[in-house]
Fold this protein.
Amino acid sequence: MLDLYHAEPAANSLKVLIAIKEKGVAFTSHFVNLHKFEQHEPAFLEVNPNGQVPALVHDGKVITESTVINEYLDEAFSGPPLRPADAYGRARMRIWTKFVDEYFCPALSFIAWHHMIRNITDKLTPEEFEQKVARIPLKEQQDKWRTSAKQGYTKEQLDNWGRQVRTSIARMESQLAVTPWLAGDAFSLADVACFAMAAGVPRMSPNLVNEKDTPRFMDWHARMSARPGVQAALAMPNPVRDTLEASRSQMSSALR
Ligand SMILES: N[C@@H](CCC(=O)N[C@@H](CS)C(=O)NCC(=O)O)C(=O)O
């Protein structure tokens, strides 16, 4: 029995959806609508007390943290390997997945929340909003919801996160000049992690990634997009697509 709790195919949810589809492992999908605050409902907190997706439940055992989930999927199930065969290759892969978790994803996430939050919270009264936020288990996440809802991040903070996203893309471009995939000669969880964050960037920010400035990134993005596992992950239901689209152009200006 394998159950995956995830949101729309973007960011950390997309990361795990790509891995599970690439592996070809059968699973039961549980869509958690972040725009309806379902990740903070008591039923989901029983699965992940941090109130965040994704979360995997394998024969009753819960695994959280998208990067850990992906390594677990590769270790626990047969199917095409998603990690390099040698120790050095796996170390290189983990340098990328750690970089995504600690640098690329947080920078993108703060920018996304800043621009998207009004589309999520607009219909709530201040009291309703505060009730929703009070249920969030992690103080850091409460702060993030409250600060973004009042558009409280400074221009300096937003500029810095924009710079970090540009640095992340530049780092990928440099690596792809040396090896066809991020951790070496073969597709791996390093590519999965980076693509989960960067999938929407060409459409959102053509001024940042394009054939002239980042040709290797574009080629890698096309190779990733052509993979059946990636296509299957991106085709998972996305009931919040309109809200994401509405925020896209605002995010684009933050990445310039
Ligand atoms: N480090 C965690 C981060 C998970 C995370 O930030 N999930 C986001 C979606 S990409 C989430 O659930 N956000 C909703 C919230 O925190 O209220 C992981 O990699 O799984």
